[in-house]
Write a structure and sequence with these properties.
CATH topology of the largest domain in chain A: D-Maltodextrin-Binding Protein, domain 2
Structural class of chain B: mainly alpha
Number of helices of chain B: 14
Helix content of chain B: 55-70%
CATH class of the largest domain in chain A: Alpha Beta
Largest sheet of chain A: 3 strands, antiparallel
Order of helices and strands of chain B: HHHHHHHHHHHHHH
CATH architecture of the largest domain in chain A: 3-Layer(aba) Sandwich
Distance between the termini of chain A: 80 Å
Shape of chain A: globular
Number of helices of chain A: 19
Largest interface: A-B, 54 and 46 residues
Helix content of chain A: 25-40%
CATH topology of the largest domain in chain B: MetI-like fold
Oligomer: heterodimer
Number of strands of chain B: 0
Structural class of chain A: alpha/beta
Number of domains of chain A: 2
Mean pLDDT of chain A: 88
Radius of gyration of chain A: 27 Å
CATH superfamily of the largest domain in chain A: Periplasmic binding protein-like II
Low-confidence stretches of chain B: 266-274, 310-318
Radius of gyration of chain B: 28 Å
Distance between the termini of chain B: 52 Å
Strand content of chain A: 5-15%
Chain lengths: ~550, ~325
């Protein structure tokens, strides 16, 4: 029995529902006008809080308290703590505070990308690797920072002193401007190499690190003869990013004259003689590299499961003595060593060898002197604190005192300085460097935080201060390697970028799968040319031509 | 005179009772041989299957309590070796973990309540053939299964509605699962209309019929949907990660996910390292899984009895 009253109530609720639907279609004009990047002076309205005479070497102190909005990456090893000395010191001494939008480390790139694309980005966006800014350029949400580096004297001085201008030029997009500022390294800081069981190697009669990759092969063969039933090498980092032997191929490739593995990138190899791009997987260097690893598998020196097993399995094999070499980095060797001491094995010694030289020379990859840096959102140029933001970022990320502050903290509280030597305060530890310390430099004080510190301190002096001796040894051993010449960038326009993206997926898949197949012996090396023909069928020639055209048009 | 030899009657071994519902042993029809061997083989097969399914779970539980040296050398199978609680202590000793756990409970309870309310009412309305515009309303629901605004438009919508950093960003966008809706709708369609008619003849309003007749007799489907929604909200991390900008508002799933990312990073030199980093690294995934699954496992037995079918049989004499 429907009463008339109930019917009117029902009709009214339908009307309300319909109304809410239309309310969602409100016209909200959110279009922001992009700041005209050609103006050379920053108007007074955007210079609130900025220093009048900010120069290289001056500490940044705002003329009045300023607040910057920052996209903060929350790392679980040092969860965000508003009471950090880092934050309070900046507030008291430099009059700078932050409005933090937090995103977890686990999905940092996804959230960063989303928030920028939605137009909601905070002013400062840190932890951005060179190349990651390209996707946002056409949307107009990023500030073309090249127009404003004149206000960043510390950055300019570092670039000049350390000869980094070619690297910065490489960041230019199709419109001739660059949209991010990277972390800078005074010298390359290599991290990855092969970690070996030095005790097992010495027992087999091998006294020193292999000089060439062929020497390494001989050493592995010696090990195999001395230790039957054990894999001389069983590798890891094949499941990260679906890139089999990603780390090993990357670190070996420069010595063979190519790029591979994690370093494959867009697959281009720049020929210095012809001044043109080639497809890396078609070069002789790549063929030599793949043949080398295929021969390792064929001779039973490299565990074929290396190509597919996950990291835990590979580490388990190394830790239980079922393999005697694995790829590693300066941080992982500490954890490998700990596995052995925990298991009660006091004999085992883990050593990171110097990356051997190859047929193309004794090289490290080019471009290893820029690291992750930061971007500034386009909307920041309209904020009153804009100039102050530029000066602050310049001071914190590029000045000697700013870098020291970000990495080490406050002299007397978190570290002590004796001339040029720095040491952590007695009570403070970072990454096991000061085992007696009870407090953590990052978790308890907020320093050495990847959001505020670029390139681990940038200068050799600052970096070495907190490295383990093993790391410093490794970097010193690698220092005489030759850095390959910088690959010129070939900025693409939107149409080219779209076309490349379509081809790249298929090409990268073919390279990944076939590299693995050749290495495992599933495909004999005699079929190499057949594979090259397959690549042609996937438009590799047009792919490379597009880049060469963009290069010529520069 | 006829006497019955009462004392010499065979005394039954088993007291006949109606409790088991099966005829007592002495009077049961004996299973044929074929059937018995089938039961044997069937039982053996099912035991093997159950073991295969349970093994990974028991392995995870064992890993959660084992020491890293055994885990990294692959020696942990069914029993924890090197029993320690270090990872548990680190995780459970963190205030943020409990704050986020409370958030998860809060989000799950509110979200499930709202979802159930919306889904049951929508499904009930849709199940009535005489609803005007029924096809249209069904069409709206089904269309959302096929078409989606996309990540960025959704983000902009929720952001402009002002739901960022509030509970509603997690609860409202996923409040109705169309799949659950359609299942409930067909359940209500098959609900005997005689019951509802009987109730309304006695003067009950539509709401009364819904709350007092239909819902109590739909315990099976309501319990199932409750479980589905609760589990999906409990495990959900994506909405929270998208719309929450403050770590204090994360549910525990985002916290644990972040913890795993930080530890397995390995290449992050700036990670700095906490104490026991390698121990945590070895079994944080196992601990995470255990802590997330435990409450659901505890909840399940209480809901399971509502899955019993046949609650309604006999209510209506056809």
């Amino acid at each position: 029995m429907r009463s008339a009253r109930k019917r009117t109530v029902a009709a009214a609720s339908v009307a309300v529902l319909a109304l809410t639907l239309t309310a969602a279609c409100s016209s909200n004009d959110d279009a922001t006008s992009e700041p005209t990047a050609t103006e050379s002076g920053i108007p007074a309205a955007q210079s609130v809080g900025a220093m009048k005479d900010f120069a290289a070497g001056t500490d940044f102190v705002a003329t009045e308290p300023v607040t910057f909005s920052v996209l903060y990456r929350d790392h679980p090893n040092y969860p965000l703590n508003q009471d950090w000395l880092f934050l309070s010191q900046l507030k008291d001494t430099n009059k700078v505070s932050f409005d933090l939008t937090s995103a977890p480390l686990s999905d940092w790139d996804a959230k960063k990308s989303l928030i920028i694309s939605a137009g909601d980005a905070p002013e400062l966006i840190p932890v951005t690797y060179p190349g990651q800014e390209t996707q946002f350029v056409s949307g107009g949400t990023l500030l073309p920072i090249s127009d404003y580096v004149q206000y960043m004297p510390n950055f300019q001085q570092k670039v000049k002193d350390w000869d980094l201008q070619p690297y910065i030029d490489n960041l230019k997009q199709a419109d001739g401007k660059y949209y991010m500022l990277p972390g800078l390294y005074q010298s390359p800081q290599p991290q990855y190499s092969i970690a070996i069981r030095q005790d097992a190697w010495e027992k087999a009669g091998i006294k020193e690190d292999p000089k060439t990759w062929d020497d390494l092969k001989d050493d592995l063969a010696t090990l195999k003869a001395a230790n039957p039933g054990v894999w001389p090498m069983s590798d890891r980092w094949s499941t990260t990013n679906n890139n089999p032997l990603g780390a090993t191929l990357q670190l070996a490739a420069p010595n063979f004259g190519t790029v591979a593995g994690w370093g494959f990138g867009n697959g281009l190899w720049y020929d210095q003689d012809s001044k043109k791009f080639e497809y890396a997987a078609s070069t002789d260097g790549y063929k030599d590299l793949v043949s080398y690893f295929a021969s390792l598998v064929k001779d039973g020196l490299l565990d074929p499961e290396s190509v597919t097993q996950d990291d835990d399995t590979a580490k388990a094999k190394f830790g239980s003595g079922q393999s005697l070499a694995i790829s590693g980095n300066t941080q992982e060797i500490t954890s490998y060593a700990k596995t052995f001491t925990d298991a009660g094995n006091t004999e085992a010694k883990v050593h990171l060898i110097r990356v051997p030289e190859g047929p193309a020379g004794d090289n490290v990859a080019s471009g290893s002197r820029v690291a992750s840096g930061f971007m500034i959102s386009a909307k920041a140029a309209e904020q009153p604190n804009f100039l102050a933001l530029l000066q602050f970022a310049d001071w914190l990320y590029y000045s000697d005192s700013g870098l020291e502050y970000a990495k080490y903290g406050v002299e007397g509280t978190t570290f002590t300085k004796d001339g040029d030597t720095r040491a952590l305060a007695a009570d403070v530890d970072w990454n096991g460097v000061n085992p007696t310390g009870t407090k953590k430099l990052n978790a308890d004080f907020g320093f050495s935080n990847g959001v505020w510190m670029l390139a681990n301190g940038s200068s050799d002096e600052l970096i070495q201060g907190l490295n383990t001796p093993a790391t410093n040894d490794f970097v010193t051993a690698m220092a005489d390697k030759e850095e390959l010449p910088l690959t010129p960038s070939a900025p693409l326009d939107e149409m080219q970028q779209e076309q490349i993206t379509l081809w790249q997926a298929a090409l990268n898949d073919s390279v990944t799968q076939n590299t693995a197949a050749f290495i495992l012996g599933q495909r004999p090396m005699s079929e190499w040319d057949a594979w090259q023909t397959e690549l042609k069928g996937l438009n590799v020639d047009q792919y490379v031509d597009t880049f060469n055209q963009a290069l010529a048009a520069k | 005179m006829v006497t019955t030899d009462l004392p010499n009657q065979p005394t039954p071994d088993v007291i006949p009772s109606g409790r088991t519902g099966r005829p007592d042993k002495g009077t049961r029809v004996k299973d044929s041989r074929g059937y018995r061997s089938f039961r044997l083989v069937n039982g053996a097969l099912l035991i093997v299957l159950a073991a295969l399914v349970l093994y990974p779970f028991v392995n995870i539980v064992a890993q959660a309590f084992s020491s890293e040296s055994y885990i990294t050398t692959g020696q942990v199978n069914l029993v924890p070796r090197g029993f320690n609680l270090i990872t548990f202590q680190v995780v459970l000793g963190d205030d943020m973990f409990w704050r986020n756990y409370r958030n998860t409970v809060e989000y799950t309870v509110v979200a499930t309540a709202i979802a159930m309310a919306l889904t049951t009412t929508y499904a009930y309305a849709l199940s009535k053939a005489h609803l005007k515009g029924r096809k249209f309303f069904i069409g709206i629901a089904v269309a959302t299964m096929f078409f989606n605004g996309g990540l960025i438009p959704n983000y902009i919508l929720i952001s402009h509605l002002g739901f960022r950093n509030t509970l509603w960003a997690i609860v409202l966008p996923n409040a109705i699962s169309v799949f659950n809706l359609l299942v409930m709708k067909s359940f209500f369609e098959n609900f005997p209309s005689e019951l509802e008619e009987a109730a309304s003849i006695d003067g009950m309003s539509t709401y009364g019929v819904f709350f007092k007749v239909v819902l109590p007799l739909s315990k099976a489907v309501v319990a199932t949907m409750l479980l589905f929604y609760a589990v999906s909200f409990w495990n959900g991390w994506f909405g929270a990660f998208l719309y929450m900008d403050d770590p204090n508002l994360y549910p525990v799933t985002v916290y644990l996910r972040n913890l795993m990312a930080g530890v397995s990073g390995g290449t992050s030199i700036q990670g700095g390292g906490t104490d026991n980093l390698t121990q945590i690294g070895a079994n944080v995934q196992a601990v995470t899984m255990l802590l997330t699954v435990l409450p659901i496992i505890c909840l399940y037995p209480f809901i399971q009895r509502y899955f019993v079918s046949g609650v309604m049989l006999g209510a209506v004499k056809q």
